[in-house]
Amino acid sequence: MNSEYLSHLQNEGIAVHIALDRFMNNESFYEKYIRMFPEDKTFPLLQEAYQRNDWDNAKIYTHSLKGLSASLGFLSLSSIAEKLLSCLKKEDVSHYEIYYKQLVNNYHQVLNLLHEVDKKFS
Fold first, then answer.
1. Which listed site, 5, 25, 31, 116, has its alpha carbon 20 to 30 Å from 38?
2. Is the pLDDT assigned to residue 2 strictly greater than 90?
3. Domain 4-121, CATH number (from 3.30.200, 3.90.550, 1.20.120, 3.40.50)
4. Does residue 94 surpass a pLDDT of 90?
């Protein structure tokens, strides 16, 4: 891996090598999408759906976040989104709350990490 930015993310637990496979080992292309992640609207839309008890759209946004985070190497975030999606599909709203809170916390951890790495390598 040539990019110090990506090496640092890998050292912080982001599955960079797995994600690079999805990006055909194009580091600059992958880094571009990593840097765009904080601007993605999927998570805010999920929050809105959650606040409105709009479970159909919550499923859609959770599924999108699961795939996006997996593609970018945020495997913990993707795993939590997968559990949340399972609850939504089963209409298990009681467990939804637990996974939703975990998702919110993990999402913010990812954003904080990306912000810190951006500051360091900008």
1. 25
2. no
3. 1.20.120
4. no
